[in-house]
Design brief:
Blueprint lengths: L1 E2 L24 E9 L8 E6 L2 H13 L3 E9 L5 E4 L2 E12 L5 E18 L5 E7 L13 H10 L5 H4 L8 H11 L4 H9 L3 H16 L1
Parallel strand pairs: 2-4
Antiparallel strand pairs: 1-3, 2-8, 3-7, 4-5, 4-6, 6-7, 7-8
Length: 219
């Protein structure tokens, strides 16, 4: 169902466009949930093929209302079917582009928006998961420390090579939060390690967590 962050978009010409940074959400809300075998980070890209009726309806409503949906990592269960367990911490996704794929399915391009915690979850009669969530505060911008400066330079070189979803990203390559989240998306680490990086709320702690995965390539 989903394309990984490094995959190409579903035939979209405007997928490289990114929306302006939105004002931070606060408090609690009810949010449709899309459990996936992927971890979405704030400001990260996500391409999806939509074929289940419950998610086609969800996407239509989100696009009509200009509203986000929530992406949460599946712990047990399958994307196309029942999900028995999913992560408590997820990221809201805003749809920035859509089109019909060659196979007739709906393709959408999303951008990660803001982290949230799922407080309660229910399943609608159509099978859609809906969560009562609490918005988590966005991480403030923080200067990339000198000892991690090479990570920003590494991203600047690597991102344009990762296909349509990343080719137009222009930084900020000196922001510890942004750099850490992009690294967590693209490094060959497990889903559980990606989820751990999402749940870390200290940008410098996230960089320290990821640095050992990069050093061998730098030696």
């Amino acid at each position: 169902m989903p394309h990984g962050p490094g995959g190409g978009p579903p035939g979209s010409e405007s997928a490289s466009q990114t929306p302006a940074r939105r004002a931070a959400r606060a408090g609690s809300a009810e949010l449709p949930l899309f459990p996936l075998n992927t971890v979405l980070f704030p400001q990260g890209p996500l391409a999806l093929r939509i074929f289940e009726p419950r998610y086609v309806d969800m996407v239509r409503k989100c696009m009509r209302d200009g509203a986000p949906f929530g992406v949460v990592l599946i712990h047990s269960g399958q994307e196309a079917g029942a999900v028995s367990s999913a992560a408590e911490i997820g990221t809201s996704a805003v749809i920035i582009d859509f089109n019909q794929l060659p196979d007739g399915l709906l393709g959408i391009i999303c951008t990660g928006e803001q982290k949230f915690r799922v407080e309660d979850r229910r399943v609608q009669p159509d099978g859609l998961n809906v969560g009562t969530i609490t918005w988590l505060p966005p991480e403030p911008a923080e200067a990339l420390p000198e000892q991690h400066g090479h990570l920003g330079q590494l991203l600047k070189k690597v991102l344009p090579q990762l296909g349509e979803l990343y080719k137009s990203m222009s930084g900020p390559f000196d922001d510890a939060s942004w750099v850490g989240m992009r690294l967590a998306e693209i490094l060959p680490i497990s889903l559980s390690e990606r989820q751990e990086c999402l749940e870390i709320d200290d940008p410098l702690a996230r960089l320290e967590r990821l640095a050992p995965f990069i050093r061998p390539a730098e030696d």
